[in-house]
Amino acid sequence: MKHRHTNLLLLAIFLATFLGHTQVAKSQGWFRTGINLGQSKVRIAVPDFAARSQDQRLVSLTQVFNKVLWDDLDNSGILDLVSKSLYPLKTPQEPQDVDYNAWSSAPASAQMLAFGYAEIINNNFVVTARLFDVHNPTNPAVLQKRYVATLTELSAREVAHHFANEIIQILGGGISGINLTKIAFVSNRTGNPEIWVMDYDGYNQHQITNYHSLCLTPRWSPDNSDLAFTSYASGNPEIYVFSLLTNRRIPFPTYKGLNTTPAWSPDGKKIAFCSSMSGDPEIYVCDRNGLNLQRLTFSPGVDISPVWNPKTGNEIAFVSDRSGSPQIYIMNADGTNLRRLITAGGDAEAPSWSPNGLYIAFSWRVTETGEWDVYVIEIATGRIIQLTHNAGRNEHPTWSPDGRHLVFESTRTGTRQIWTMLADGSDPKQLTTKGRNWNPNWSN
Known about the structure:
Helix content: 10-25%
Oligomer: single chain
CATH superfamily of the largest domain: TolB, C-terminal domain
Shape: globular
Strand content: 35-45%
Number of domains: 2
Distance between the termini: 39 Å
Number of strands: 30
CATH class of the largest domain: Mainly Beta
């Protein structure tokens, strides 16, 4: 029996090959509203910022800034970017340059205009950026900022991310943009599956661990300073905690048996994880230093992949095969009030709780088609949305901190890679291409 449990645990970690069956709906208005992707997008024009000298450093960095700003706003899901082919001939740099009628009327028909210029001052990359409401010429300024950065591509990208975030927050109901967030993931591109981190758009991919061993299931701490993950560096799966501030491993106890799938509580004070220290894989919770251990589940079979309700911190979702096949369950953070979430049949895995606490994204393979796809369930009503269709295996979704995006792994191009999409399943984008990449997790 113990051998069967061990095999099931390893299967959940490596392959997560679960089956499923349900009746699901395609994306509908109630779901888009719940993830703050309303039907009405703000129409915004974003002409290229001008480089105010011919210095090749400035010209190059301004080009980077312009591309990143456009992509960030385009990825937001809440903005309709006016095609540059519809822009008036004169591109504004200063407020007095704006022809309000030309930008607000057809063919541009913009509501908002983001514009400005870049220059080098005291050997710094300096961007003057403005967001104007072109329908309000008497008081058009919505945002006016000056950003100062070093003369590097990374800094130019960060300036664009900052400006885009502020635009998205203003025009998106106060919800901050995700353009400065990171994604942790597993990659075997250097020979062994190690933990890697990249920017939200796939830029700046770099290796974090170098254990020359299997590392899996990275999870960000709430303040993004630490990563908890599963490592086989000692020969046995253990919970490792790695500080991104010191680039060193933080001490965490070594428990008997298999230990895997760590998850931080929303306040960062506790870690939930799966362990077979009792002989059977169960869900445990402890302080972030591994002390004050408490067992939460007491059922034969495998209980694995805990995830906290980020809105309240009072509930934990997890995967269990106690019913005979892997299913998603929810319990209170002390182990009480256990209930099964997916009741329509089939097997479900890899739950991820939305930031607003209303939804759980998960992986499901429908028995009739044999396809692995990403779904979202509304917890209060049980309504389910299928997000991926006819595109290889799609698994391990996790939410972005704005609740408008999901990152997941997919084999749709032939190898397992990391992708993002809007949380309604639209606008998929591939982030990784080298080696095989999986187990993505979005920073806070």
